[in-house]
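User: Sequence recovery, please. Input:
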């Protein structure tokens, strides 16, 4: 049983992401994830519906830190969310959208922005390789969406394999984050 760091090979001041035209360093991402993790409810499953890709990444990392499994349905229709939620009665939604939440009766936690300024440094956490990080669902076009659990170790191995396959490890300072909308 091993563990893989949440982020590997980049210093605290390296750019993790760009948002609203500004660089977000690795340390700020780690601080945001650690702070959000303390606010997540005591549940085992979360549906991360953050539309902002940085907030989605923070929510995914915070869930990992809390040992929560991110459920990733194929779309956000009420029908699909309801069908996925039937198999996970303790699920809640994390969302960064204002106004009414269209996925009632699920509990909704609104993503909160954190205060800028001096915050204590956060060490890069490691996540157990066997920890289920996400459950990805098929479209459900032939019935119920089918779940496919993914462990953190497997996700990290696939990412490293993709970097090697594309020969991207040789590029200094490369930052690559891919999400699907």
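Assistant: Recovered sequence (181 residues):
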């Amino acid at each position: 049983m091993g563990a893989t760091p949440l982020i590997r090979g980049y210093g605290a001041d390296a750019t993790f992401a760009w948002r609203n035209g500004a660089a977000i360093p690795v340390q700020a991402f780690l601080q945001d994830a650690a702070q959000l993790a303390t606010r997540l409810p005591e549940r085992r499953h979360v549906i991360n519906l953050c539309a902002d890709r940085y907030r989605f990444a923070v929510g995914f990392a915070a869930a990992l830190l809390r040992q929560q499994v991110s459920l990733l349905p194929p779309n956000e229709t009420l029908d699909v969310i309801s069908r996925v939620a039937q198999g996970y009665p303790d699920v809640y939604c994390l969302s960064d959208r204002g106004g009414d939440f269209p996925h009632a009766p699920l509990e909704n936690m609104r993503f909160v922005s954190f205060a800028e300024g001096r915050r204590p440094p956060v060490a890069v956490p490691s996540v157990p390789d066997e920890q289920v990080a996400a459950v990805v669902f098929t479209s459900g076009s032939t019935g119920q969406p089918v779940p496919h659990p993914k462990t953190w170790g497997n996700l990290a191995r696939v990412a490293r394999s993709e970097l090697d396959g594309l020969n991207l490890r040789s590029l200094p300072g490369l930052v690559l984050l891919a999400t699907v909308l």
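The domain at 10-165 is CATH 3.40.50.12780 (Rossmann fold).
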